[in-house]
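Async update (no meeting this week)

Hi team, since we skipped the sync, here's where things stand on the single-chain job. The sequence we agreed to prioritize is pasted below, unchanged from the tracker. I ran it this morning and attached the output directly underneath so nobody has to dig for it. Comments welcome in thread, and please keep replies under the output.
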Amino acid sequence: MTVIEFSKIILKTTLTFITLLILTRMLGKKQLSELTFFNYITGVTIGSLAANTIINTSSQYLNEMIKLIWWILLTIFVTLISLKSSRVRVLLEGEPIMVIKNGKIVEEALKSTKINLDDLSMLLRSKDIFSITEVDYAILESNGELSILKKQENQKNSKPSLYAY
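Output:
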């Protein structure tokens, strides 16, 4: 490897890093636990495009950067549209679905979310709930988390509260 080739690699990597840093700041902040499937796939794609920009020596660097920047701009555009339109937001992120109602499992909801009883039990156990009989309502949020309202007699205090993890 020549000094010129080495310098090109360092320059490409540095420019890609700075571009990615600026563009991800533009995307906004969202905790990992709040990521929807769309956000996750977008993040993976951005990482792949950035890696291709650095690694790919057969194509022009500018073309790879254009792909990366365009993908992030499309993501920002879709995010802005979903903030303005509830229909687009539901299309991209989905809707919360009640999987336990009045202490009973909603079978149709489990089928539509493709969650089986073992998965539901695991989600409940991760919140220290070992019996469905303790739960009044459980809602599967669009990011895959489960929000739980325990039955009044199973709550530590007299006020009902919504637990999310």
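Quick observations from my side:
The first helix runs from residue 3 to 27.
The radius of gyration is 22 Å.
Reply here if anything looks off.
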